[in-house]
Amino acid sequence: MRAGCAFLAGSAALGVTGALAFGLSPALATASQTAARISSGQAAILTIRTVPAVPDARVILDGIAHLTNSNGVVTIGTFAGRHQLDIKPPSRQIAGTGVQFSRWLDGIALADRKVSLHQGLNREEAGFQLSHPIQVRFAARTGRPVPMSAISSITITSSLGARFTFAPSDPPSLLAANRIVRIQSGLYPQPIRYSVRAVLFGGSNVVYAGSQNFFVHPNEVWMVKVLLFPMRLEVRDALFGFGIGSAVRIRMPDGISRIVPLGTGHAVTLKSMPRSTYELVAKGPGFGLSAPATLTKPLVAKLLLLSWVDLLAVLAFVVLFIVGLPLLGGRIVRRQGSRVRLLAWSSGHHRGVTAAEPVATPGEPQGGGAQKMTAHAAGDVAAGAEPAAAAAHVPDREAEQRSGAAPAAAPMLGVADSLAAVYRADPMAVAAESPAAVPTPDPIDRAEDEVTDTISAIVACAPGPIVGQGLDDPGRRA
């Protein structure tokens, strides 16, 4: 040790003599003071290590520059006491690499500082932040490359909270690869992680935010996987389901619309569509129905087109419903004294009768005796005959009784009215209200007559328009 100090002192003295002889820099005078203190037993050694290793970093101690070796280490002999220390990146940096001082081991972030050295060995560490350029490429999940021109922008964030948005063709010139932290053994270059947050393809984000992470290394290319899926479009008729249509209009997430022509079978397959929600409208002979489609996996979208055939079919159905239903189930009638046409359905053919037909009871001769009018004839007379005309056919019953002749065969309108009125009050009294001039038929004829009279009463009491019944007759409404 003493021999080394004597050597350092001799070197310093020789340097001072040369400096004074030739008038060189005053720094050599400082070197003479250093040599004098070393010879007096106050020698100190300073070792500086760069983290990470930075070759040719410039360490300036008391105005004298020293360079680090290939491992980023430099050793300087000096004396114990206070010194001025500074460190700078290499004057000639490696192409594509940025070097920036970060901190000293004791936490001071200033490169130029004062240090106090003690006798013997003194160790110090200097941390640097390295930066490198990056390149970004894109590919589908199948590995097929995606043109960079299709990507409008990419957004990444660092583990330090920094956020960068740039075009793939113009990435940042340098990205920090590490930050300097202190651990138990000294300074440590902790790598900075970068996460892909968004990749815009046609206005849609085609990555899951935070699912892909990268670190910065020299001459490295980031390969970003994007979400592209195939989408098959099929156009079918809305009612009958057959293939139809010539194209599909697709509205992209960025608001731009594109027309895609259909191929064989009125369908087309789009291979690399970004993950997004689209608005699809079929084009063809008719009206295309708009439908949204969310593409998160391979999708088959079936679109509907309301064609002219569907419109004709709907129109034909409406015409058949409005016109054909009354023709099939009934007919259109007009009330007397009303301009409104109403729908009425009849249970069968209406038989028009203008005069009552006499019905002979069993056991009576056809040419004489009491005649009975059927309920159907009475209904016909009620629907079509005027009260005065009907009364003209009714004979004088008292004259017939005085002469002893049988009643004439005439439409018994009064009997029909009486039966209808009595049936409304008491159906069992229909037989008791029959005129005495009508002879009592046998039980079989009586049963038939009761059925006939009951039907006539029901017809007379039925509400609503009934074909064949004169509702406008005041006498029949009673």
Topology:
Blueprint (H helix, E strand, L loop, with lengths): L1 H21 L4 H13 L3 E9 L6 E4 L2 E4 L5 E7 L1 E8 L9 E7 L8 E5 L2 E13 L2 E6 L4 E2 L4 E8 L4 E4 L8 E2 L1 E6 L2 E6 L1 E9 L2 E2 L7 E3 L5 E6 L1 E10 L9 E5 L5 E5 L5 E8 L1 E8 L2 E3 L2 E5 L3 E9 H22 L1 E4 L6 E4 L13 E3 L10 E3 L1 H10 L2 H6 L4 H7 L9 H13 L17 H19 L12 H4 L1
Parallel strand pairs: 1-8, 9-19, 20-27
Antiparallel strand pairs: 1-4, 2-3, 2-5, 5-7, 6-8, 8-13, 9-10, 11-12, 11-16, 14-15, 16-17, 16-18, 20-23, 21-22, 21-24, 24-26, 25-27, 28-29, 30-31
Walkthrough of the structure:
There is one protein chain. This protein is α+β, with helices and mostly antiparallel strands and 478 residues long. The chain has 4 domains: 2-125, Immunoglobulin-like (Sandwich); 133-226; 233-309, Sandwich (Immunoglobulin-like), CATH 2.60.40.10; 358-477, no CATH class. The protein contains 9 helices and 31 strands. It has helices at 2-22, 27-39, 308-329, 375-384, 387-392, 397-403, 413-425, 443-461, 474-477, and strands at 43-51, 58-61, 64-67, 73-79, 81-88, 98-104, 113-117, 120-132, 135-140, 145-146, 151-158, 163-166, 175-176, 178-183, 186-191, 193-201, 204-205, 213-215, 221-226, 228-237, 247-251, 257-261, 267-274, 276-283, 286-288, 291-295, 299-307, 331-334, 341-344, 358-360, 371-373. Strands 1, 4, 6, 8 and 13 form a 5-stranded mixed beta sheet that branches. Helix 1 runs antiparallel to helix 2 (27-39), helix 4 (375-384) runs parallel beside helix 8 (443-461) and helix 7 packs across helix 8 (443-461). It starts with a helix and ends with a helix. Mean pLDDT is 74; it is low at 1-29, 340-395, 397-401, 404-415, 429-438 and 466-478.
